[in-house]
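Our preliminary data section would be incomplete without showing what the modeling component actually yields. Below, a chain of 420 amino acids is followed by its predicted structure, encoded as tokens that our downstream tools consume directly.
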Amino acid sequence: MKKVAAILGLTTALAAASQGSAVTVTLACGTVGQELQLCKDGAARWAKKTGNEVKIFESPNLTNDRLGLYQQQLAARSSDIDVYQLDIVWPGLLGQHFVDLKSKVPQSEQNGFFKGILDANTVNGKLVSLPWFTDAGLLFYRTDLLKKYGYSAPPKTWAELATMAKKVQDGEQKTNKTFAGYVWQGKNYEGLTCDALEWVSSFGGGTIVDSTGKVTINNSKAAAALDAAASWVRNVSPQGVTTYDEEAARGIFQSGNAMFMRNWPYAWANGQSDDSKVKGKIGAAPLPAGPGGKPAATLGGWNLGVSMYSKNQAAAIDLVRYLTSPTEQKIRAIEGSYNPTLPALYKDSAVLKANPFFGSLYGVFTSAVARPSGPTKDKYNQVSQAFSGAVSDVLTGKSKGQAAVAKLSTDLARIKGRGW
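Predicted structure:
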């Protein structure tokens, strides 16, 4: 495997380096939206402050690809990457490879984070990583088109969304044949697990596996949720939606070619950029609910952990503490719509001015539905892949909802039989 140094994205060389007192820390950053640039900027500020050097490893866009690469690095006990950016569902899977930060970070700092998110980063009493930004699925919509087609508010149910999306799509396609009613993440990867968990949960169909480890997906409400989503394809969503990830959906919405979009909060800042065709015309709302159900948003978010194999652990820990500090999280919230993991910042006037929905949708972020990574432990990735594969079969017409959840239940029981 190429050394991370060969995939260099940023180097901040300082006078201290020539004196031999500086160390080099390699930080793995995501590349979705403005993520890479903001990661570079934060790392550069730390480097200037400390006199150290930072190298940026540009991680793959897709979560599954990133996980595979990280697992290779960690299994090889490679010291190439010092600080990893970890998905909220990875601590149980990768925790043994990371430094326990519980005694390395002052309790006063730990107390500043949302307790639930800090708990999700703790495995068997070990604090695997510090929360950097949190996420929850949101419904973005065109405020101008909502008004144009006679609607006073975004949809509250999935049925309403389909009706509204069709009306707007039919009207807009008279002058724009590529216009879509609704775009989302339909590609068979972790993003589809997030979207589909929202559908299933909002229909009252549970969370795939419950908190005790019991497989719960084989029920009529879960099946109905998947069938409903399949009905959107080639109706209010393009046929190609089954190949979309976050950036594909955002590209279509931001270019003015969709009425509704499911995405993470980062899409807000991108949509308000000067080159966005929908700048000033975007609203954000909770995702719709199924029949008799409640809106559900999948808990996302990323965290920073220090590799056990790092040769510069002290500096790496200092970098993690710096990047997750209130000052840095405030910058990222204002410039990139990245949700802070510190409750105090949701009362900050500058943060709320840049992201009005942070205040109005605060409950969405604090009550988001967790993927079943806790009960399934190191088998979560297998569970997620089985789930997204079953959902993909329904979306592409290879299976119906009831048959898919029945088969999935059997497949998950087999995975559980190998221990979780």
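Residues 401-417 form the longest helix (17 residues). The domain at 138-298+370-417 is CATH 3.40.190.10 (D-Maltodextrin-Binding Protein; domain 2). Preliminary results of this kind motivate Aim 1 of the renewal.
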